[in-house]
Amino acid sequence: MKKYSREDQITMATWAADCAERVLPLFERAYPGDDRPRSAIEVCRTWVLTGVFRMTEIRGASLAAHAAARDAEEGSAAQYAARAAGQAVATAHVPQHAYGGAYYALKAVAAADPANAVVNVAREWEWQAERLAEGLREEIMGRIVVLKHGGGVLVKLRKGDGF
């Protein structure tokens, strides 16, 4: 697994939280009383700001967001949005979880509007790439692959060496 600097990890966590936050309304519209994904993003941002790492808090927030995803409709934009939040906060523990925050955000965008998924996902991928620090952009975005598949898109995360 590739080692990232503390500065890179903080940059990646901020970026992953931004990606997750963009799709959070897809979850909150479907499950307005469930604040677990929003809370996960807030825990992530608090860690970024303070540097205080409490494993029980980070892990708890991530697991809660993933539990919200399991409670959501299978394959829905809401489910992917909750997973994006769970992955974003987990970046405090393992930097590579940032990839998951972006990956699930793209899947949420695709699921939200399947008829326009090709255009919407391409736009979101570009937004993600533009906001990622230049030194990390090629490596990270090179692993988040969007393929046209039938009339829609397939979003994949290329793992392999260094992941």
Please describe what this structure looks like.
With 163 residues, the protein is mainly alpha-helical. The chain has one domain (6-157). Helix content is 67%, strand content 7%. The chain has 7 helices and 2 strands; from the N terminus they run αααααααββ. It has helices at residues 6-30, 36-50, 55-71, 77-90, 97-112, 117-131, 134-141, and strands spanning 144-149, 152-157. Strands 1-2 form a two-stranded antiparallel ribbon. A hairpin with a 2-residue loop joins strand 1 (144-149) and strand 2 (152-157).
What are the defining features of this structure?
two-stranded antiparallel ribbon; 7 helices; 2 strands; 163 residues
Would you summarize the structure shown here?
The chain has 163 residues and is mainly α. It is built from seven helices and two strands; from the N terminus they run αααααααββ.
Break the fold down into its secondary structure elements and pairings:
Layout: H1 6-30, H2 36-50, H3 55-71, H4 77-90, H5 97-112, H6 117-131, H7 134-141, E1 144-149, E2 152-157
Antiparallel strand pairs: 1-2
Helix pairs in contact: 1-2, 1-4, 1-5, 2-3, 2-4, 3-4, 4-5, 5-6, 6-7
Give the helix level as a range of percent: 55-70%
Distance from N terminus to C terminus (CA atoms, Å) equals 5 Å
What's the order of the H and E elements? HHHHHHHEE
Number of helical runs? 7
Global structural class: mainly alpha
Percent in strands? 5-15%
Biggest pleated-sheet summary: 2 strands, antiparallel
Average pLDDT rating = 95
The total beta strand count reads: 2
